[in-house]
């Protein structure tokens, strides 16, 4: 950090201190959660089955991930030897720059992957420690205690995300200084790749189990959700943890990383233009402010329901969480403005951070409108159940399509703010402004992840309570918390998608900037913009737009195939004497084994397709076409992800509306239609939709890392060999995804 002034060095050390404070707070939350009562022996029996299933799944997934990571470690190390390191790295490290950057990028990749794994694995484990304790609090009639326990267990994951994300990015900056982007690319890629694995695997697991359990238990047998006679129930509860806890945490963690990477890459360009180092230091300090804000906000959640002033007292858990989110938002905005004026003398940076926070807040009412059963879209879906599953599904898909359009409008309005704020200035300022929107949007990651993890914890607590036969009073408390959790999960899913688009857009601008730097260095025409009027760029744009649909199709079919196996197993076990009567316990482990194996099958093939196709486009059609490819991925990925997530959420809440007693209630024909609609929506909202977030960023990061190689070696013999290898990988990925035996019987 020799390039920085003494005061700036103090601020960076302060950022490190804040990161450790977040990790200490997370440790405190873990201990507080673990110290609570675990309830009755019957509750603990169910809980232990969930714990065994989730930990077994994560162990198997870790083995699958490790094989790919080991191969990529070698490739990343050698990538620096193919294309020389940046001029900043040469200036900092001299003749040893190549070796130091190669080691730095490789180690950063390992650290990013490790941190992302820790966030997912430890976050899920603490969530599982919390679920049975929430049930125990509810049995004692302690609503606020159940809320506090569930929220604290979820907040652990949020603060771990904050602490590790801030710590990793800041330490890399401290070691590499203004050459940090060379290593940060590895850090971001490691976290993003692990998130992609966790999102895909967790999504396939959770929805295969959920669909199988519901289609047999609810539709065929008229049993309530989480009925202990249903062999798929434990796998369903396990899936909530590996999908929504581990998967979402890793997803948002890598968005958190990627926005730091893009802001430092673009900030470095502005540093060279202006000579001012605040373009690099400011994003890190604002992230630290956001961590402090999240600590304050999350600590306040249990207080709102007991607030002395009645007019400030929250009426339920949802309002308590939203109130705390607003508290954190106000603290962050005011602190960012004060810091920006004091340090940089530049109010525009803080205003863009505020736009990012406002964008996150705006998705609350937008998502609520399309997914809440108090609003017209979901009520229309619920009414359509009276005429069968076909009209139910069509209504839900229509709601999802419409919501994706309005989400794009909101994101475009946020992006336009950077255009207006830096109107008349060089384009690099506007691009940096987009990165600042991303920094602001994810500054309250602690709150966001806490709200998301709260959902599966409350859902699991409700399931444990039903399987253990808790009193009606306790069931009411857990049902209320579960309902709030469904809302917070829907909101954070939308936020994750929006953050993915903002992060990917910032990376897209970093791609153009980085390509221009390399082209200038080797003396070829510099790429300043992407022309859509040339044939190669049109081809790139079309292929980029097609990739999210191919990716989603494979993920959805993987869920369907796994769900078929679960349905067959659950049906088989219902035929065992004593299971339906409740005198014999089903073999829950068999369904857990089926879903665990199914979740691993398409992991490698989906990653292979996502990595190979952008590289093929760049090597065959050159780097400008690769830029158009990225634009197509971002556009289609955003529309498709929101469409699927909202459609699934709306269909789910329409089912819950009917289960509350409307249109005949549970067991009616309308209810059966709503369950079938929900099972269609489940893989959309919890598998394919969310998995597109890390896929979009993986594609952008791979392209950013490969762009210098493509610029320098396009058309060479080595490039032609690489094309042949990549075609083989892509074809293998498609073939692997179709390895499914179809049996036709008369």
TrEMBL record:
Chain positions of site Determinant of potassium independence: 489
Cofactor: Mg(2+)
Superkingdom of this protein's organism: Bacteria
Keyword entries, A-Z: Cell membrane, Hydrogen ion transport, Ion transport, Magnesium, Membrane, Translocase, Transmembrane, Transmembrane helix, Transport
InterPro entries: PPase-energised_H-pump
Membrane topology recorded in Swiss-Prot or TrEMBL: Multi-pass membrane protein
Catalysed conversion reaction: diphosphate + H2O + H(+)(in) = 2 phosphate + 2 H(+)(out)
Protein family (similarity comment): Belongs to the H(+)-translocating pyrophosphatase (TC 3.A.10) family. K(+)-insensitive subfamily.
Function as written in the Swiss-Prot or TrEMBL entry: Proton pump that utilizes the energy of pyrophosphate hydrolysis as the driving force for proton movement across the membrane. Generates a proton motive force.
Protein name: K(+)-insensitive pyrophosphate-energized proton pump
Source organism of the structure: Candidatus Woesebacteria bacterium RBG_16_42_24
């Amino acid at each position: 950090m020799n390039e920085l002034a003494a005061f700036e060095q103090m601020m960076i050390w302060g950022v490190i201190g804040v990161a450790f404070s977040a990790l200490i707070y997370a440790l405190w939350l873990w201990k507080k959660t673990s110290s609570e009562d675990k309830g009755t022996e019957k509750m603990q029996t169910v809980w232990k089955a969930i714990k065994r299933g989730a930990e077994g799944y994560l162990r198997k997934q870790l083995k699958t991930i490790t094989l790919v990571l080991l191969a990529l470690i070698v490739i990343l190390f050698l990538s620096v030897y193919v294309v020389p390191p940046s001029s900043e790295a040469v200036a900092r490290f001299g003749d040893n720059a190549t070796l130091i950057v190669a080691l730095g990028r490789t180690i950063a990749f390992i650290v990013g992957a490790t941190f992302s794994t820790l966030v997912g694995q430890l976050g899920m484990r603490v969530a599982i420690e919390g679920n049975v304790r929430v049930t125990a609090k509810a049995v004692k009639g302690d609503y606020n205690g159940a809320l506090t326990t569930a929220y604290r267990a979820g907040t652990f994951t949020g603060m771990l995300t904050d602490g590790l994300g801030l710590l990793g990015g800041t330490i890399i900056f401290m070691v590499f200084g203004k050459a940090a982007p060379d290593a940060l690319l590895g850090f971001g890629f490691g976290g993003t790749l692990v998130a992609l694995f966790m999102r895909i695997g967790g999504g396939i697991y959770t929805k295969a189990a959920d669909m199988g359990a519901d289609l047999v238990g609810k539709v065929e047998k008229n049993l309530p959700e989480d009925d202990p006679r249903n062999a798929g129930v434990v796998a369903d509860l396990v899936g909530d943890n590996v999908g929504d806890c581990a998967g979402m945490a890793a997803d948002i963690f890598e968005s958190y990383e990627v926005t730091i990477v893009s802001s430092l890459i673009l900030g470095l360009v502005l540093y060279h233009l202006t000579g001012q180092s605040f373009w690099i230091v400011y994003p890190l300090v604002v992230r630290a402010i956001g961590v402090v804000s999240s600590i304050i906000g999350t600590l306040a959640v249990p207080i709102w329901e007991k607030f002395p002033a009645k007019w400030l007292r929250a009426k339920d858990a949802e309002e308590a969480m939203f109130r705390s989110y607003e508290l954190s938002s106000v603290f962050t905005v005011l602190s960012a403005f004060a810091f920006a004026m004091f340090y940089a003398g530049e109010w525009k940076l803080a205003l863009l951070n505020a736009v990012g926070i406002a964008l996150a807040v705006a998705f609350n009412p937008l998502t609520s409108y399309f997914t809440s059963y108090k609003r017209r879209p979901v009520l229309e879906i619920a009414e359509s159940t009276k005429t069968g599953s076909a009209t139910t599904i069509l209504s839900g898909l229509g709601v999802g399509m419409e919501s994706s359009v309005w989400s794009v409008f909101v994101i475009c309005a946020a992006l336009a703010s950077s255009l207006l704020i830096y109107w008349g200035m060089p384009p690099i300022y506007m691009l940096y402004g987009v990165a600042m929107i991303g920094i602001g949007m994810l500054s309250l990651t602690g709150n966001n992840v806490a709200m998301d993890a709260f959902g599966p914890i409350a859902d699991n607590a409700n399931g444990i309570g039903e399987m253990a036969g808790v009193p009606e009073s306790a069931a009411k408390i857990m049902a209320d918390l579960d309902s709030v959790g469904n809302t917070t999960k829907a909101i954070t899913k939308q936020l994750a998608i929006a953050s993915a688009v903002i992060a990917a857009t910032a990376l897209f601008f970093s791609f153009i900037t980085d390509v221009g730097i390399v082209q200038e260095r080797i003396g070829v025409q510099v790429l300043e913009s992407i022309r859509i009027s040339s044939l190669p760029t049109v081809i790139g744009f079309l292929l980029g737009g097609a990739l999210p649909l191919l990716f989603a199709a494979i993920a959805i079919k993987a869920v369907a195939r796994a769900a078929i196996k679960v349905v067959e197993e659950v049906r088989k076990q219902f035929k065992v004497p004593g299971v339906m009567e409740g005198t014999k316990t089903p073999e829950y482990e068999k369904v857990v084994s089926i879903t665990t194996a199914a979740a691993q099958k398409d992991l490698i093939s989906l990653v292979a397709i996502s990595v190979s196709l952008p590289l093929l486009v760049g090597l065959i059609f050159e780097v400008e076409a690769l830029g158009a490819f990225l634009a197509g991925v971002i556009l289609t990925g955003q529309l498709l992800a929101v469409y699927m997530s909202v459609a699934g959420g709306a269909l789910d809440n329409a089912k819950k509306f009917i289960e509350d007693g409307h249109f005949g209630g549970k067991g009616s024909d309308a209810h059966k239609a709503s369950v079938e609609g929900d099972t269609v929506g489940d893989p959309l909202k919890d598998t394919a939709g969310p998995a597109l977030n890390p896929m979009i960023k993986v594609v952008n990061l791979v392209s950013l890392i490969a762009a210098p190689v493509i610029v320098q070696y396009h058309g060479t013999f080595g490039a032609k060999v690489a094309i042949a290898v990549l075609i083989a990988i892509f074809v293998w990925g498609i073939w692997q995804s179709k390895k499914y035996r179809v049996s036709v019987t008369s």
